[in-house]
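Notes to self after the Tuesday call (sharing in case useful).
The group wants a holo model before anyone commits to mutagenesis around the pocket. I volunteered. Ligand is pyridoxal-5'-phosphate. Logging inputs and output together so the record is complete.
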Amino acid sequence: MKNKNYKLETKLIRAGLNRTQFNETSEPIFMTSSYVYDSPEQAEARFKGEDEGFIYSRYGNPTVKVFEDRLAEIEKGEKCFATSTGMAAVFASLMCLLEQGDKVVASRALFGSIYQILTNILPKYGIETVLVSGTNLDEWEAAIDDRTKAVFFETPSNPTLEIIDVSAVCKIAKKHGSKVIIDNVFATPILQHPLELGVDIVVYSSTKHIDGQGRALGGAIISDNEYYDKFLKPFMRHTGASMSPFNAWVMLKGLETLKLRVEHQSDNALQIANYLKKHPKITKVIYPAEQTHEQYELINSQMSKGGTVLTMIIDGGKKEAFKLLNSLKLIDISNNLGDTKSLITHPATTTHYSLGELGRKEAGIPDGMIRLSVGLENVDDLIDDLEYSINIF
Ligand SMILES: Cc1ncc(COP(=O)(O)O)c(C=O)c1O
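Result:
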């Protein structure tokens, strides 16, 4: 795709396209682990970086490269490395950068496995993690110092949908030369553009909306050339959590319809949030939209829609939450999100179980909290399913 000024919809479908001599319409899947060279001289030149071309699919693969180039263009970043899962992306984005004695400052409202990396795994290598309340800029200001090499947060966060002021945190981080890494999974490449807000590195679990049809695991890290060349590329090549060519192809097909899906699912989510807000058995609805979120002004300044996920707190605890989930006839019980199928989960016993009771208390995840990832089904059918089940508990 030659014209870099193409709009988002066009890039989602065509960026990175690199047709073979057969002029195929759809991107081909190069299921190959390695590549052959014309001569040992050429092999040597490739390894020295003097000859462009593929070496080994752990380093790079033509199908994976189309996905990486497309995502980099969509995000307006310079480079992208695709990973085997979203967690591989999160871990690599931090680990390639950090050394013993460094410090990471992160928001407390995090996906469970990210919380584990920050609080259990990194400290084993002499890296200190300081957690702050993501919405409190004074806490970010007090925690970030010259030893802070990385700042990490999700916004909206999982599952409390807390919104962090991206530009403001980036400004604080820049004063100390810290790299800002954002997990943009909930906002998706459609609803929020973190690099334009000052973020240095964007990570995705492409398992979520990018595939969005429950088929394949994957992840991606988008950055500038410097971070990619100096830190990320060597780390990924040697540690090996690369994306498979088949999964890259699935993700490419997902990108083609991403905008349509995310916008429609967000519209469904907004309608459901407005319905739940009026229900007497629902104590609180958290959804990044005017009627259902305290930080609406900030949301409006950095997101174009509220996203596909909403969280509710019911008038009850685990027993009532389980009763609600067990009564659903249409919405599936699953910890995944961003899917065309609506998926519901009880974070305290699933995605955020590993935080422990205290960790969940600090992260604001009570036993009466339920997270709903809204799909593409007819919204009235979804509301009927919820109504029936809420009335039962
Ligand atoms: C916000 C967020 N980040 C990262 C991940 C990890 O992604 P994956 O399951 O692809 O490793 C998840 C998964 O649920 C998530 O919700």
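Two things stood out.
Residues 271 and 379 are 8 Å apart (CA to CA).
The longest strand covers residues 148-154.
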